[in-house]
């Protein structure tokens, strides 16, 4: 019954916590007066209830916001021993670090997903640009509309192709001439 009261205390505000504490004190007092427990046991139960209530509050605060809970522990907001405060402080710090690692991991996953998406968009746009270049339909308007989606090197490549003309990419005679040149020229004779 006392444990249930300590759990109820964490869901309310300070006024409700005081009401729960008062109810617990009344229950202990009645139990002592009725002879159910002796004075020493009532005192131990009173201290245990307060400790349970504070521990439940600290646990709730750590789950809600571990950084604020750690600050409150350091400021002595909770009525507990220094030893218990240090134990809870370790838990608060651990929870805070865990949240931080989870946040960093989520940000990293989101960044990688964005990079994959951007690469895919760039690849798809470059494929479209290749088709347009091959068919002779590549225009500066298309190039400027898709500038942000293209890799910088692809953009320069298409821009250069527009300036010099794409005939070299589609004219079979130029392809045959270059292939013949490659077959007759040794790699050692090629100079860059």
Outline the structure in words:
The chain has 192 residues and is mainly alpha-helical. The chain has helices at 2-9, 14-33, 39-64, 66-75, 82-135, 140-145, 152-164, 167-170, 172-184. Helix 3 packs across helix 4 (66-75), helix 3 runs parallel beside helix 5 (82-135) and helix 4 (66-75) packs antiparallel against helix 5 (82-135). The termini are far apart. The mean pLDDT is 81.
Annotation keywords:
192 residues; mainly alpha
Short note summarizing the structure:
This protein is mostly helical and 192 residues long. The protein contains nine helices and no strands. The radius of gyration is 37 Å and the shape is rod-shaped.
Indicate the low-confidence ranges by residue numbers. none
Mean pLDDT: 81
User: What percentage of amino acids are in beta strands?
Assistant: under 5%
Discrete helix count? 9
Structural class: mainly alpha
Total strands: 0
In angstroms, what is the radius of gyration? 37 Å
Order of helices and strands: HHHHHHHHH
Spell out the blueprint of helices and strands:
Blueprint: H1 2-9, H2 14-33, H3 39-64, H4 66-75, H5 82-135, H6 140-145, H7 152-164, H8 167-170, H9 172-184
């Amino acid at each position: 019954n006392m444990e249930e009261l300590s759990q109820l205390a964490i869901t309310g505000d300070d006024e409700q916590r005081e009401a729960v504490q008062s109810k617990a004190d009344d229950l202990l007092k009645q139990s002592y007066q009725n002879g159910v427990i002796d004075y020493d046991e009532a005192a131990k139960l009173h201290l245990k209830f307060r400790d349970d209530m504070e521990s439940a509050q600290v646990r709730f605060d750590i789950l809600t916001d571990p950084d604020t809970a750690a600050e409150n522990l350091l400021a002595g907001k909770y009525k507990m021993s220094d030893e218990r405060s240090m134990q809870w402080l370790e838990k608060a710090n651990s929870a805070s670090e865990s949240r931080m690692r989870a946040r960093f991991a989520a940000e990293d996953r989101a960044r990688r997903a964005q990079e994959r998406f951007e690469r895919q968009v760039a690849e798809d746009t470059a494929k479209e640009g290749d088709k347009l270049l091959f068919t002779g339909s590549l225009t500066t308007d298309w190039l400027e509309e898709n500038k942000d989606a293209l890799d910088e090197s692809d953009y320069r490549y298409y821009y250069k192709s527009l300036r010099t003309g794409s005939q070299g990419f589609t004219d079979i005679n130029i392809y045959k001439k270059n292939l013949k040149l490659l077959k007759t020229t040794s790699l050692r004779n090629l100079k860059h």
